Amino acid sequence: MKRTIASVLTFAALIFGGLIGNALAQTSAPVPATGERVATGERVATAAASAPVKLTLPVKEGSVRFLVIGDTGTGTIQQQELSDVMLRYRQAFPYEFVLMLGDNMYGGEKPADFKLKFENVYKQLLDDKVKFYATLGNHDESNQRFYEQFNMNGEEFYRFTKGGVAFYSLNSNYMDKRQVKWLEDELAKDTSEWKIMFMHHPPYSSGGKHGSSSGLREVVEPIFLKYGVNAVFAGHEHFYERVKPQKGIYYFISGAGGKLRSGDVKKGSPLTEKAFDTDMSFMLLEVAGDELHFQVISRTGETVDSGVLTKQQKKPNTLNTSNLTVIPIR
């Protein structure tokens, strides 16, 4: 009963948050400015500010440009430092929107928390009309779907398109029959050139703490293969990993947007194409024709991975997915 009342109150707070935003601004502790950071933070901020922007992306006319980041919702100095780098790179690479890979809020989810852990940190990007599209993580309350700045429009799973690219946000906390049916129905009629999934739990991972979400993979991978999904982005693991293509699909993990699990990538993992687990990071991506360009940037502004992937050739797939077992993800 208490949890129900709390959820109702949270929902109401999110809906009417804009009406009380000014009052909250006076009571919420803002993320410290660069000059107020502790010594370690100052060194990192100085290094990031002085590091030149080295863009590897082509910035082609008419391309779809976006940023990917996961597990952000801490409101820490480190999250702000990474946001500063995100802003600097946007001057050279004008991305239009951001995919958030879940765990958008750690701890409380009152309007003051959304201000401290999201609005303050990404204020300049929000002021510049950059849209954030969120997916739900295991630390997130379902009522986040009503928060206007997450652009979920009240849905736990949803689809949107940019250019010739279709983006699907999945609630990987629980792939129930309703979501599975929705996903199949949407993919069956999708004629987009690229189909990209983003969710919280990674179907494939070399993480020592969590590892691959095999239960989730059993449900979604047959559907991805059947309908020609091109790329999958996930968080949950607090590091970056580019997984070797699995059955022709590209998988990425970008879960170091607000937390870091240093040294957690298993050494010698057969899944890993490239990994980075010594600092926080985000991804820049550009879809241009049949190519997906990517660049991964750390909190100090260094490029830790980059490359270009070619869109897979469409292959007819007659796999029967009607008898899939639905498994809750833990």
Secondary-structure topology with pairs:
Elements: H1 2-15, H2 21-27, H3 39-50, E1 64-69, H4 77-92, E2 97-100, H5 111-119, H6 123-127, E3 131-134, E4 158-162, E5 165-169, H7 177-188, E6 194-198, H8 214-227, E7 231-234, E8 240-246, E9 249-254, E10 272-276, E11 281-288, E12 291-298, E13 303-310
Parallel strand pairs: 1-2, 2-3, 5-6, 6-7, 7-9
Antiparallel strand pairs: 1-11, 4-5, 8-9, 8-10, 11-12, 12-13
Helix pairs in contact: 3-4, 7-8
Folded structure, characterized:
With 330 residues, the protein is α/β, with parallel strands linked by helices. The chain has one domain (2-310): Purple Acid Phosphatase, chain A, domain 2 (4-Layer Sandwich). 27% of the residues lie in helices and 23% in strands. It contains eight helices and 13 strands. It has a seven-stranded mixed sheet, with no helix packed on it. A hairpin with a 2-residue loop joins strand 8 (240-246) and strand 9 (249-254). The protein is globular. The model is unreliable at 1-41 and 318-330 (pLDDT under 50).
Q: What is the 3D form?
A: globular
Fraction in helix: 25-40%
Order of helices and strands: HHHEHEHHEEEHEHEEEEEEE
CATH topology: Purple Acid Phosphatase, chain A, domain 2
Q: Number of DSSP strands?
A: 13
Give the name of the CATH superfamily.
Metallo-dependent phosphatases
Text of the CATH class: Alpha Beta
